[in-house]
Amino acid sequence: MLRGEAGVGKTALLEEAIAAADGFLVLRAVGIAAEMDVPFAGLDAILRPILGLLDSIPPTQARALRGALALDETDPEPNPLAGFAGALSLLSAAADLGPVLVAVDDAHWLDGLSMQALTFAARRVAGEGIALIFVARPDGDASFVSTGIAELEVGALATVDALQLLRSHWGEALVPGVARRLVAGTGGNPLALLEVTTLLSDGQRLGIDPLGETLPVTESVERRVRQQLSALPMETRRGLLEAAAGGPPSVESLAALAPAQDAGLIWIRAGDVRFQHPLVSAAIYQLATPADRRDAHRALAERLTGADQADRRAWHRAAAAEGPDEDVAHALEVVARRAEGRSGFRAQAQALERAAALSLDGASRARRLLAAATAAYWAGDSAQAMGLAEDALALTSDELLHAAVIHRLAIIADWHGQWRDRVVSLERLEQEVAIVEPLDAQRAVGLLGVILQRRFQALETVEALELAERRLAMSDGLGNERQLRALQDLARATGLRGEARRCGALCDEILERESASSSLGFATNIAEPLLWLERYDECRRLLTASTLEARSQGNVLRLMFELTNLALLDLRTGSFARALAAASEVAELAVETGNDYLLACNLAVLTRLAALRGDFVSSSEHARRATEIAERLGDVLIEAEVTMALAESALALGKPSEAVSLLEPLRRLAEANALDEPGVLPFAHDLIEAYVRSGRQAEASSELDRFEAQARAVDRRWGRAAVARCRGLLAPPGEIDRHFQLALEAGEAADWSPFQGARTRLLYGERLRRARRRLDARTQLRAAITTFDQLGAAGWSERARAELEATGETIPRRDPTAPEKLTPQELQIALQVAEGRTNREAAEALFLSPKTVEFHLTRVYRKLDVNSRAELIRLLVREASIPS
User: How many CA atoms, within 13 angstroms, populate the side-chain half-sphere of residue 472?
Assistant: First the structure.
């Protein structure tokens, strides 16, 4: 990424790189301000020369890319990341034939989807003969984001170089004193130096006449363009304006542009017009009168008659409109529909916003603004979405449309909580429900769903249960899908309240209905209750099947939700390698798609996993980011999960007082909110251990009694194991074995995490050592260390080793496990391959190119010292808890 101010020579450097790329296939594009609203315009320009290779890339990616580039007649389901991955795979296929250079000038003017696709590819290029060079303005002047791409700042010329530039152009016609003043006045910007010097008189260049104020680069370019335009024929000026408005030139205007090429304003190459500098194009457009600009756009609209030019035609018609025009507004709505089909949500929002401005009446304007707000929300621009929705709200008096706008505002606020206290308070939502329920029950149910989501996020269990009952009653007669969603929410609400039997019955009904309708469903909606109910196998089966379906369909949002719950399940059951792979994948996808909620969920998982591995720096950073987002969203559950992870880390580090200070507020939160299902926030056993290790036995005993009563009330098997372990911590020496043996047996019967089993053995060994039973202690501690080492729980392994050394025995330092040797992306690929997928199938699943998968898989083989897929599978079955 070359970044720099206008005129510093970025384009010249790019052209130099292209000239040096001997033997490369050069694929290039130039960002054009007039085409920023046309989805994938830039990507189309880059990939068009290699579209013949489409059949060689994974089918899902090829299908998504064809849809994105409008190569198919029918629009696909929106699937942006699969299309982005398709662009990477297509570039990779071209690189198999020889090295490829992708060169993008004025990237800050690239349309948003092309920008996302190319940066997506740039971050994933690995082991392939592909180079990408982008040229853009500084961050402050451009929306182009190049996160993860190496940047080079192109600055102004040093004084000696700037003076040399002036000498090479003007020689003796420019005296040194004037040259130095020009360098100082322009800051060494090469374009400004040349433009300003051109504008000076001979007397000024020779130092005879005063210079006056030097001009900034944009003003100097504009002044020169104004002077040159005045000397050109009317037909030439008209052709230049059409080119500046986005072109393309007609045959007549192309012939008329010859004088502009002679004047150095443009180049004409193979019928294509390129301006000497983007500032020249901007100056020509700005210097024209509004009427002339409208005439230029009108001429271009009339010229663009092809079916593949419909979007550009509509935009030029909009730019030519002098006032409200319903025909043009409708044409832009058609543009918006096409953009939506190509995942161009940002372009869809822009088209609908412009259509709203051209609407003849307030109702049409409000409807289009609401649609624009929805598109902006899906594009990840919640600030724009909020502004558009609020504009719509001010225009509508229709009760149903008003409720729809409030619904949209509330959804945005749900995931981006900084707007929580504006027009989307819970009281306001309840008012809308009362108004709209007699008119549109389905809308009322949707509004109640938003309120319920907020109750869930705040862990307000009493209110959530009451609301879920009401929502289910209102869903009667609205179809099976609406009722299923309401039942799922009710299962979640009853689960939170500790109504275990009813929650289980609701889960059974939901699963039976989905099975009868042959609908797999969104497994996330039932995963949490199944997890709390310890129905781990059912939970995994549903989530795995839904994940596979989401991958095959390229449904990224569904995939992220299902993988998030798989990560939570794997974390709970001790499959840490799988949890790391899933959480890392979702965190990356969440950043790509702008989903802060799912990012925070998975950062909470990564907080705990990093601490378990002994990487406390990363754990702390994950916790900070997750908490920051959760506070903004008002999501108490995510904050609590981060807190539990930090408390567990404090126990591993031997800081029980810190763990107590973290966990006591969670206990108060659970009590205040009547959170009677201990599996939602399983912190009690850690708090009891922290109390004991802090010498606060009375408080530990009191907390244990509360925890035991709660676990018995919902009949939690893991709870029985945890209670027995805590009893062992408080028991007199003569009863240590009874309680800890019961804890180990109960934990195994409950399929409690092997990590928790190792923690039980660690505490058992600690108590045995303090009872001076060193030999018995060593047996438990060695077993704990073995499990901790297998799980990669380095922090806990170190604590157990220190305890073993205190018995007089040492154990060799552990070797890293196979998953620990891999990066998160390598682990994701290794697990995909270990589950039987080919490189192409793994590439489709992970939104990569097959070549990238091959590159990383080669590194995996080398790091793990294996030579075949079979060896890799055996190793990961043993060390990553994948199914055999």
Answer: 18
